User: Fold SDR family oxidoreductase from Alterirhizorhabdus solaris.
Amino acid sequence: MSGTAFVVGGSGGLGQAVCRALAAECDAVAIGYRSNRETAVSLAGAIGPKAYPVRCDLADADGIAAAFADAADRCGPLKTIIFAGGVAIAQPFVSTIAEPSWREVIETELIGFTRVIAAGLPHLRQNSGGAFVAITSVANYAYPPGDALSSVPKAAIESLCRAVAKEEGRAGIRANAVAPGIIDAGLGAGFLRDLYDPAVWETQRRRIALRRFGTAEEIAEAVAFLASPRARYITGQTLIVDGGFSL
Assistant:
């Protein structure tokens, strides 16, 4: 696909896999990071000259706009914007979630995504269209207890994707989401290692139609597909990539 892809959260576990997948298809990939510059620089070095690390803090609307402008100036017109950022979230039950925790995740993820949309739309309009893809969660379709803090803002993100798809389609702009199931990467890898007894995860594995957990690369392939011209007639949708967990 032509143009530059900007991956917000590109230094994270899933974000790194998305950057690698898009590098195989795009003219350039901007690796957005907030604090993990070392990882972003290392990933850029592994990908090669078409990758460019750039700081992008979801709490800073002006900073996001500056990051997008920097990437466009350095790498070429932005045609793809991926939202893979978020908060490191535990698995508390709703009854134990205090208001500051709700505010943190909603401010970072949902309000952060509104800032990404606001900064990205002018670029995609100027460049005759393009694609947003947000990484959300299968919890909005098969809710596991303890996942509200993660799934509630991601449900809103999916709704915002549909709004962008409906309102901006006339400009050639598409917006979709990818909802991963249980993934052995990023936060998911930490959960599999540290959260709950192994027997609990074995029970969850048996719930999955394909009888295994997913990989970061499998999520990245779905993201790359929705961002590509192969999905040019798909917009406002959520692609559930969960191995059949939600069936």
